[in-house]
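Q: Okay, next protein. This is Dihydrofolate reductase from Amycolatopsis suaedae. I've checked the sequence twice, so it should be correct. Can you predict the 3D structure?
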Amino acid sequence: MGKVVMYSSVSVDGFVADENDQPGPLFDWLTNGDVPLDDSGALKVSRTSYDHTRPYWDQIGATIAGRHVFDITDGWDGKPPGGIDHVVVVTHRPAPEGWDPAAPFHFVDGVEAAVAKARELAGDRVVEVAPGDVGGQALAAGLVDEVRMDVVPVVFGSGKRYFGSVDAQHLLEDPHVMVQGDRVLHLCYRVRR
């Protein structure tokens, strides 16, 4: 079975968006290079960031996100972001009215059920968990194997926290990957068990 990875870009002070859910410059590194990261051609990164990011993206079998992220992205118009096969949405509400039941989105109640469903869908591939409240809940429940961060040199001061509302200490191992890209530092930590 694949590992569960919490992953996103993050400010130096630990935020994934401002108070208005705007990421500001957090994703600028995805468009400031000359190497296409995906088939769209919209994402172009430095060679170093490509060599780090593309192999990881190719391993992702399912992504877990909260209903809030699903709603503010309009469900990515029914197409999972980044070419991912499946998105599992943690929610207490049903799919939106008129939602295409054939879209590869799965609506589940609770983070434990979301991880179980995502593992089933991903098989031996990576299950990616979006940061924020859902990611923090998964970490607190002991369901996250690794934390990956693309740390961007910006300070938000306040906003949506990477680890959501986690209120207890969780130890990570020393970073086993540290890659400096252009305007981004890629870090990977295994969760200490």
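A: Here is a summary of the prediction. The chain has one domain: 4-190. The helical segments are 47-59, 67-72, 111-122, 133-140.
Q: Noted. On to the next one.
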